[in-house]
Design goal:
This protein is of the alpha/beta class and 360 residues long. The protein has a domain of 249 residues: Anaerobic Ribonucleotide-triphosphate Reductase Large Chain, CATH 3.20.70. Helices cover 36% and strands 14% of the residues. It has a 4-stranded antiparallel sheet with strand order 10-9-11-12, with no helix packed on it. A 3-stranded mixed sheet has the order 1-8-7. Strands 4-5-6 form a 3-stranded parallel sheet. Strand 2 and strand 3 form a beta hairpin. The radius of gyration is 22 Å and the shape is globular. It binds zinc ion. The site of zinc ion has 8 residues, from loops.
Length: 360
């Protein structure tokens, strides 16, 4: 099915951070203890204020930090250690602002009444069954999560060191240091504000182009950083960078344990996956080997909307079977399936066009 329709994606319940001590293969209700994600990546599992589960809860809000801009602002510092130290100081300040902003937003959200959410707050959310229509949702809403996200780790590392984490071990080390730092601060925010904060590897459907546009305007075209129409998705190795699926897995895997708010591992595969299920199985095996939490494969799938003919060619303008031009080209952009790319923003289309296939 995933070879034909891109879904299902795969979640790795054997990854240590997706483990639940009550999970038992013989328990018909084990789904209660299974980590689940929203399609695109949002992950809700750990819980400081109730049962650790993905059921009866959700993500309330997330805000994304433009770590690329923070790095650009430090680029003129000659000494590398000083440059990196300056970056961390800026990151720290913005983490504080983000945590405070999410807290303030939650304080406002808390003032809503149960009757405003007849589905969510009248039985679906944990504890909402005890609410009367005119009760505020305050006692229930803390079951939800607040995400502190980041975008463009690759461009951030290029600004700080000259190389992204897919091409340099030193950059990878720094990348892990940055995201680990975010995770550690987020744990402190959980204590301070008493919410379920988590670090999110932001998918950035809209931000990917928005931040880049602002930064290009302010700082000009900087090679490897603002010279494209988009910033690289979260902690991903840049889509234009040619490497094996194995290398991509090894580089991206350790970030999954740090990003409890959600993450995804994508591999672009070539050819017709329906005749090559081993290619998909290979990716799933890699997820197991490297403790990748959530992953999927991308490829091309064309379908004639008149006669149902399908193939996996790069393009299919005309159906080879019936000659129809009513052709649907299935593609995935940050978790969403699109038959036509007409409605997508320029940044995401630029990213789509830059994608390279990951060989063995
Ligand atoms: Zn046809």
């Amino acid at each position: 099915m995933t070879a034909r329709r891109f879904f299902p994606n795969f979640i790795n319940l054997d990854a240590p951070y997706n483990y639940h001590e009550k999970w038992d293969i013989n328990d018909p209700e084990r789904y209660k203890y299974e980590c689940a994600t929203m399609g695109c990546r949002t992950r809700v599992f750990e819980n400081r204020f109730g049962p650790k589960t993905s059921i009866g809860r959700g993500n309330l809000s997330f805000s994304t930090i433009n770590i690329v801009r923070l790095a650009i602002e430090c680029m003129n510092i000659k000494d590398k250690e000083d440059r990196i130290a300056a970056f961390f100081a800026k990151l720290d300040g913005l983490l504080e602002v983000t945590a405070q902003q999410l807290h303030d937003r939650m304080e406002f959200q808390k003032t809503a009444f149960a009757k405003q959410f007849p589905l969510l707050m009248r039985g679906l959310w944990i504890g909402s069954e005890n609410l009367s229509p005119n009760d505020s949702i305050a006692p229930v809403i803390n079951q939800g999560t607040l995400g502190i996200g980041f975008i463009g780790l690759a461009e951030c590392l290029i600004a700080l060191t000259g190389k992204h984490h897919g091409e340099s071990e030193e950059s990878q080390e720094l990348g892990l240091k940055i995201v680990t730092y975010m995770r550690d601060r987020v744990v402190e925010f959980c204590e301070r504000y008493q919410h379920n904060y988590s670090v999110l590897a932001t998918p950035a459907e809209g931000l990917s182009g928005r931040f880049t546009k602002f930064d290009k305007k302010k700082y000009g075209v900087i090679p490897g950083i603002t010279d494209k129409d988009y910033y690289t998705n979260s902690n991903h190795v840049p889509v234009y960078y040619k490497c094996s699926a194995l290398h991509k897995a090894q580089v991206e895997a350790p970030y999954h344990a740090l990003t409890g708010g959600g993450h995804i591992f994508y591999v672009e595969i070539d050819g017709d996956a329906t005749h090559n299920p081993e290619a998909v199985m290979n990716i799933v095996d890699m997820m197991d080997r490297f403790n990748i939490g959530y992953g999927s494969v991308n490829h091309t799938r064309n379908r004639c909307m008149d006669c149902g003919y399908e193939n996996a060619e790069k393009t299919m303008d005309e159906c080879p079977k019936c000659g129809s031009h009513n052709v649907d080209r299935l593609q995935r952009i940050t978790g969403y399936l699109v038959g036509t790319t007409d409605r997508w923003n320029k940044a995401k289309l630029a990213e789509l066009n830059d994608r390279v296939i990951h060989g063995k």
